[in-house]
Write a structure and sequence with these properties.
Rossmann fold; alpha/beta; globular
C-alpha cells in the first residue's frame, strides 16, 4: 500500500467512515432538521447495520429483519418488521424510514406508515423513490446494469417488482389533522451519475465515486431540482 492510499484510509476512516454518496443524500436533509433537536430519541426503521449513524453521531435505535457487518456502535439493533414494530405507542421522539417502503409489497405499505405514526411522539421522516420519475429511473438503471455490467441487483429488482409508492397514496394514509411537508430529493440525473460510477469496475471511476463524490456531498445535497428520484415526507405528529 502506497502513502497516498494510506493517507486516504486515515482521512476517510477519521472523517467519513462508511460514507456512501447515494445513501448520504437520503439522510442529510433529515439530519439538517434533527440537529435542531439534540436531545430527542431516534428510531430508524429499515436501518440495516448502520442506518443514519455514519452521518449523525448520536445514539439511534435501528429496526430491521436482519443485520450484517459492519456494525455501528451508535446503533442499538433490534430485529423486527416495519409492519409490526416491537415498541409501545409514542416510544420515540423522531422516527425515520428511509428507502424502505419501496421494498414492501403495496398491500402492506399503509400498515407500515401507521406503525411509524403510532410509535412517534414528534415527527416522522419518510424518504423513498416516488412516482413516475422514480419508476422510469429504476427501469433505466436496471437495464443498464443487466446490459453493460451483467448485474441483477436484488434491491433494484424489488423496486421494479413492487413498484414505487405514489405521493398521493402516502398522503392519503396520514390523518388529516397531521401536518405534512413534502420535499423533493436527489435530481434524477445526479442519482444516475452516482450509481453508474458506483457500479463501475474502472479504477478511476471507483476513485471518483469513493473519494471525490464524498467530498462533493454538500454540493450534491443542494441539487434537488425536478425531476427528482426521491421525496421526503416530514410528518408532524398531533396527538
Amino acid at each position: 500500500m502506497n502513502y497516498l492510499q494510506k493517507a486516504k484510509l486515515i482521512f476517510f476512516n477519521e472523517w467519513y467512515p462508511h460514507w456512501s454518496p447515494d445513501i448520504a443524500l437520503r439522510y442529510l436533509p433529515i439530519i439538517n432538521d434533527l440537529k435542531k433537536y439534540p436531545e430527542g430519541t431516534i428510531l430508524d426503521v429499515g436501518s440495516g447495520s448502520l442506518g443514519i449513524t455514519p452521518y449523525l453521531k448520536r445514539n439511534v435505535t435501528g429496526v430491521d429483519v436482519t443485520f450484517y457487518p459492519p456494525y455501528s456502535k451508535l446503533l442499538t439493533r433490534i430485529k423486527g418488521t416495519a409492519t409490526k414494530l416491537p415498541f409501545k405507542n409514542q416510544s420515540f421522539d423522531y422516527v425515520l424510514c428511509v428507502d424502505t417502503l419501496e421494498h414492501v409489497p403495496p398491500k402492506f405499505r399503509s400498515q407500515v406508515i401507521r406503525e411509524l405514526l403510532r410509535v412517534a411522539k414528534v415527527k416522522v421522516y419518510l424518504v423513498n423513490p416516488c412516482d413516475e420519475p422514480a419508476r422510469i429511473e429504476d427501469n433505466f438503471i436496471n437495464n443498464y446494469l443487466i446490459t453493460y455490467k451483467a448485474i441483477k441487483d436484488p434491491y433494484l429488482s424489488e423496486h421494479i417488482r413492487y413498484g414505487q409508492p405514489k405521493s398521493y397514496e402516502i398522503t392519503s394514509i396520514i390523518p388529516a389533522n397531521y401536518s405534512i411537508l413534502i420535499k423533493p430529493l436527489t435530481n434524477i440525473y445526479l442519482h444516475r451519475l452516482i450509481l453508474i460510477f458506483q457500479f463501475s469496475s474502472n479504477r478511476i471511476m471507483k476513485f471518483i465515486s469513493s473519494v471525490i463524490f464524498i467530498l462533493l456531498i454538500p454540493l450534491f445535497n443542494c441539487i434537488n431540482f425536478q425531476p427528482t428520484y426521491r421525496k421526503l415526507f416530514v410528518i408532524i405528529i398531533k396527538h
